[in-house]
Amino acid sequence: MPERTERPDPDALLASLKHDEARLGKGRLRVFMGMCAGVGKTYAMLEAGAKARWEGVDAVIGLVETHGRFETAALVDSLPVIPRRAWRHRGVDLLEMDLDAILARRPKLVLVDELAHTNVEGSRHPKRWQDVEELLDNGIDVFTTVNVQHLESRKESVEAITGIGVRETVPDSILERADQVEVIDISPDELLQRLSEGKVYPGEKAQRAAENFFKPGPLTALREIALRVTAERVDRDLQAFSSVAGGKGAWNTNERIMVAVDHRASGERLIRTARRLAFSLRAPWLAVHVNRGVDLDPKGREQLRRNLALAEELGAEVVTVSDDDLVRGLRRVAAKRDVSQVVLGRPSRGLLGNVLAGGSLLARLAREAGDFDVHVVRLEEERGTPRGTGGRFEATPSQYWVALWLVAGMAALGAPADLVLGYRSVGFLFLLGLLSLSLFTSLGPVLFAASASALVWDFFFIPPRFTFTINSGEDYLMIFAYFLAAVTTGLLTRRVRANQRILEERERRTELLYRLVNAMSGEDADARLGEAARLLEHALGRPCAVFPVGADGKPLPQVSGQSFGLGSKEEAVAEWALRSGKPAGWGTDSLPSGDILFLPLVGPRGGYGVLACRGRKAPLSVEDEALLKEAARELTRALERVDLERSSREADRLRESEALHQALLNSVSHELRTPLTSLLGSAEALLDPATVADTGRRDAHLRAVAEAGERLNRVVENLLDMARLNSGVLAPRPEWNDPGEWVRLTVRGLKSALEGRSVALDIPPEPPLVRFDFRLMEQALANLLLNAAAYTPPGTPVEVSLAVRDGRLRVAVGDRGPGLPAADLERVFEKFYRVPGSPAGGTGLGLHIARSLARAHGGDAYAANREGGGAVFTLELPAEQAPPGPVEEAP
User: How confident is the model at residue 4 (pLDDT cuts 50, 70, 90)?
Assistant: First the structure.
């Protein structure tokens, strides 16, 4: 048989193409990583940057911290530096990387030190790694540095080793995005020598570091973590490249053990042997089961389940693949996972089985896959080995009886055919029967039927009849050709049938996982879990349920839309499975007395619930169990994605709340302080008897008190209105009103607040009645008028026009100020937003409240610039036709 060329893995090839497509137009990231400070990361980064600039690359320094190290400072002078941006935070002047200046400069390469740094409050991004992401997204290459303790996935390990908390972390996704990760490695002794020479920290700081963090034990552990992180990344890259390349075989850069597992009891010894080998080599290992379409009996399924469970318990990664050829299936996994050594049991197949299989298992592995070593383990002879009905020769007695009766039936049909067409035509009838038999039996009954039919044909039909003697050479050749054709056809038909079963199983698995992903994309959590349980029930033919974790960290005992609840004992088993992260209940070695199998849905961020499957009578097949576990992993990923989205929304809300809080303090403090200062000053003046005696001064101070109180009241009213709008408490109570009267009363009430500015009104004589909440819309219009008065020059009136047409009421308030930038026509309605260069005063809430009140009535508010200068703000409300008023009867 010619050696088959391995094609690239389609999934890996598609993932690689998507990755390359996502990288188009993006910058490249190179990370210099070390076990801790002082190993020379920044120095190595500067050297690489200087080399790139010498090669003609436009390289600049975005930010580098020298920490007083002279060698590092000397290298900084070899590269142009983007000046830092000055910030004042809590009375302290700080210098941060100027992201906008780098984006405006657009170099080819920028050097950014200390990737895990937290930016000063008020920066565009909270973290420096987010600045780096923006640079990469804009097509700028980045060199950066990071210590291994700042990686999110290694934070807890580092804290346990050093006993020191890690406050600043970088998500592992940044490292995964990097095109190159370079470990700057020195021995702990050399680093301690550098520390004692003052090359890491100066003076007392170096002494404190030596007493706490910088000790040989922790440094050695951190060094191992850094090297392991890099080795894992290189290993993943190598496996990805091998999967995409295809046909290159395993490169065996690291030891990786694979053991082949089937349904025989001797598989337990194979698994333990592979575990010992992996432990001695400190290598990862896989337990691989190749599903060849064999329909195992219950005893065989149970033994296979125990074998795979043992491998998983001993730390193996269990892999199940489907292939009608054992060697090809093992080769595929070995090539994909870069396996270096394979553990097998001594094959027990006979000579005929080896011939039909194309050679012995060992011979084929040696001939077709020379990329790994093969360990053959001696196994004891087994009696009573579980059997199946789908192997080449494994069959039940009933199948042999069917074969026997089929031969008898074909012989009965051959008698009339012999009379009409001759004895040679009878062979075609037997061949047709064999084709039918091979569709539902294994090769054993087919070979039995082929042999029996050949003998029957010879004895009853080939001359001389009723003897096994054959006189003609043609008949000898014909019966030999018939037997060969029967065996070949039966073998090929069985292989087609086995492949069809494998394809059907793959299709079922893929369809279920696809539908699970779609089911988990809805909004209602209970509905999502109920749909996922229904899909699993339909696929497995057993009651299934998903129980999410409750607020107390325990699985909820009942969820709407699920097919069964949990009793007190079953709740305890489910809680144990969730807490331990291991399957429990029916069919497992943990609390197996119940009739429900519980699979924990546990991810890196914690537990999300348990997947339950009921079924005491018939055990799960290996394929169904693998499908159930894959469904559990998919559900875990979906629930984790939902949890991440919820956490992201909460974080966004917290950031927005913090920003609003700060903006509120900044804007309201002036508006509160100004009238309060006026009130206190006037009150203090009125306590003076001389001021009270002077009527003019007394009246002026009293007017100042009234104006300050009115201004303070407006600020408080705006704050209260904003709070009511955000909470949904403020609901309009519309009534029929005269819009002209509404405008005139609002202007009259603001006479003192407009500070002597006149208002030019353009109101039709008898506008139709409009339905709105008078008090709320009075507040909205007042906010527009006060805003216009702030930008209208003295002596120029504020212009107000009212019109009702096309079923809409529009009130336009115009000023003759500088107008609005085009980008701010919408932003002026945001909370606390003030156009740069606006005069002092105001909270930035008035326009936002005006629009919110208009929209609560089904209307809107918008802004536009006027010809000749100035801006106009328009309130728009729906204007329904007013009902007819009562008609007075004539006396």
Answer: very low
pTM score over 0.85: no
Q: 778-815 burial string, b = 16+ CB within 10 Å, else e?
A: bbbbbbbbbbbbbbbeeeebbbbbbbbeeeebbbbbbb
Neighbours of 50 (CB within 10 A): 17
Q: Which amino acid is at 452?
A: A
Over residues 16-26, the pLDDT tens digits come to: 555 555 556 78
pLDDT of residue 145: 93
Amino acid 802: pLDDT: 92
Distance of CA 285 to the CA centre of its chain: 27
The CA distance from 143 to 74, in Å, is 18
- For tokens 């990469």, the residue is 136
For residue 568, report the phi and psi dihedrals to the nearest 5 degrees. Answer: -65, -40
Q: pLDDT at position 281, please?
A: 80
* Two tokens, residue 310: 């043992």
Which helix or strand (DSSP H or E) is residue 351 part of? helix 351-356
- Which residues make Cβ contacts (< 8 Å) with residue 11, sequence separation at least 6? none
Give pLDDT tens digits for 289-328.
888 766 677 787 778 888 888 888 788 888 888 777 788 8
- pLDDT 10s digits, 643-692: 777 777 776 666 665 655 555 555 555 556 666 777 777 787 778 787 77
Omega within 30 of 0 (cis) for the link into 464: yes
CB 50 within 8 A of CB 75: yes
Bridge partner list, 805 = 808
Long-range pairs of 211-214 with CB within 8 A, sequence gap ≥ 24 = 212/164, 213/36, 213/162, 213/164, 214/36
Helix (H, G, I), strand (E, B) or coil at 616: coil
